[in-house]
UniProtKB/TrEMBL annotation:
Entry function: Catalyzes carboxymethyl transfer from carboxy-S-adenosyl-L-methionine (Cx-SAM) to 5-hydroxyuridine (ho5U) to form 5-carboxymethoxyuridine (cmo5U) at position 34 in tRNAs.
Protein name: tRNA U34 carboxymethyltransferase
Organism name: Thalassomonas actiniarum
Subunit structure: Homotetramer.
NCBIfam families, per the entry: PRK15068.1, tRNA 5-methoxyuridine(34)/uridine 5-oxyacetic acid(34) synthase CmoB
Reactions mediated catalytically: carboxy-S-adenosyl-L-methionine + 5-hydroxyuridine(34) in tRNA = 5-carboxymethoxyuridine(34) in tRNA + S-adenosyl-L-homocysteine + H(+)
Record family assignment: Belongs to the class I-like SAM-binding methyltransferase superfamily. CmoB family.
Amino acid sequence: MTAFNSFYQQIATNRLSHWLQTLPAQLHQWQSQHLHGEYKHWQKTLDALPNTQPSSIDLSGRVAAGSRDDINEGEFKRLENLLKKLKPWRKGPYHIHDLHIDTEWRSDFKWDRLKPYISDLKDRYVLDIGCGSGYHLWRMRGEGAKFVVGIDPTQLFLMQFKAIQHFIGDDQVNLLPLGVEQLPELKAFDTVFAMGVLYHRRSPIDFLYQLKSQLAKGGELVLETLIVDGDVNTVLVPGERYAKMRNVWFLPSSEAMCAWMERCGFKNVRMVNTDVTALDEQRKTEWIDTESLQDFLDPDDPSKTIEGYPAPKRGIFIANV
Ligand SMILES: Nc1ncnc2c1ncn2[C@@H]1O[C@H](C[S@+](CC[C@H]([NH3+])C(=O)[O-])CC(=O)[O-])[C@@H](O)[C@H]1O
């Protein structure tokens, strides 16, 4: 069973203590009623991970724990077999005792794109909404953040996070199995990241208000989302699928995105980067068994998705409250 007691202890003495009014009941309900059918198997995999002593931890240039020399051949093989049971590994990459978990996404590319523009994370309380397996949580901690919380409702990603944390340690970095809609208005974080989530929300304006209500006064929002070309009135609402994804709702132009943020009361709104996702950033590897970007694009015209929409282009937006 996943225990959140140490998280409760952490927040009891920090500025998130008011979260204790709702969080334990919510997670208790999650644990008793909403566990995934595979959860027990994943937990067994976690329990079987070797207890090693990584000789080094690197969270700044990459996410890495230990080297191959720290463990014997048998342990290395066991590590690889066990971690492969937690496939598909989407966000990463991770290096555990020099085992390269070559994830579908090079999430480090996104980090490199946004890092020059965000406020220094040193000593900040940081929330990452829709954090996947938590790759960026580790990079945030690597930049000196004091307390890092990620939320993501996909349970496999929680297990992947736990697997990585098994080797890195660090109880100031946590992932909770929650959706954004389950957060109370905490008004406590210095920086809130929301990357790759807005287009999955049916109500993007409500989503922006939810993000705003997590920020402390003067805090910073870092939002990344799919955008389309066009003016302030342009928004694409695709049909049933966009790049084979079913749950894609609103793709605004960059101007429309800025206008929505301003309408929701964010200040100093700016777009700092745009990027068309390239085939070296999202691709099939031996750590996923499913399709990847190449299969989602028109084989005769990679500037279009297989459905004929503009291929994925992403914008990074920063704003304050
Ligand atoms: N209601 C919800 N609340 C919070 N998260 C959700 C919700 N619904 C789905 N998610 C989660 O949002 C993440 C979106 S992926 C971005 C990962 C990372 N941020 C990245 O920038 O690489 C982008 C993509 O794969 O399209 C997934 O991990 C979902 O489980």
